[in-house]
Amino acid sequence: MSSIFSFETMWKIWLKYSSFYWDGVKNTLLVSFFAVLMGVCLGLLIAGGRMWKPANTDGSLKKTLKGVVRFLCTAYVEVLRATPLMVQVMIIYFGASAAGLKFSDTNFTILFWGLISVSLNSGAYLSEVIRSGIGAVEGGQLEAARAIGLTQGQAMRYVILPQAIRNILPALANEFVTMIKETSVLNMIGLHEIMFRAGDVRAATYRSLECYVIAAILYFIIVFPLSKLVAAFERRMSKSVTR
């Protein structure tokens, strides 16, 4: 078969193997959504740890606790942000396999540890987004909340976080868009996302270029409209803030 790219051949491949690609799209969106959701939860914990101010403890103990927690949270963020996602996926997946942390269903094992890997990575980035969002809230808000009798935790939960969420929503949407593309690295451990399915079709048709162009088109169809929606959302949020 000729190696020259052919739109006709690409169309025939799509007609025959579209179900493979749609399965990849489903898994890509599923992993991306839950990775960002888990990343938000983890990011809140990490951001809270880096900003934690323990109360009602001895001065030296308080200083030690704060230092340990901040060190661990900072180390987590710096390590995961300074290493490639692919390396993290490989270490976590093969490390879990070496430790015998497998399920009876191999596909579920791949999905579980793949999701854990990208969630941990997302949490490191989102913790900084959340921390900056909290930092953007006017400083007097916390003091005012404490002045009316709220504890540190209550002030954060009922006063600071609701205002911070407004600041970080566009960044969360951007993280979801980014995660859709980053999940492509999970094909290295066998997760049936878009790139993995493109590889399956390539193996069946011996047409590499057409198969990966289809994958690129699918990513574009998903990511481009979402990016435009996020940009429009950011403009609307900025206008509402300036009013």
From TrEMBL:
InterPro entries per record: AA_ABC_transptr_permease_3TM, ArtM/GltK/GlnP/TcyL/YhdX-like, MetI-like, MetI-like_sf
Annotated SUPFAM superfamilies: MetI-like
Residue ranges annotated for the ABC transmembrane type-1 domain, each copy included: 25-230
Its membrane topology: Multi-pass membrane protein
Main localization of the protein described in the UniProt heading: membrane
One Pfam family from the record: BPD_transp_1
Protein's UniProt name: Amino acid ABC transporter permease
Annotated organism of origin: Ruthenibacterium intestinale
Entry similarity comment: Belongs to the binding-protein-dependent transport system permease family. HisMQ subfamily.
Subcellular location(s) of the protein: Cell membrane
Superkingdom of origin organism: Bacteria
Taxonomic classification: Bacteria, Bacillati, Bacillota, Clostridia, Eubacteriales
Regions that span the bilayer: 29-47, 68-96, 108-126, 212-233
Keywords, in A-Z order: Amino-acid transport, Cell membrane, Membrane, Transmembrane, Transmembrane helix, Transport
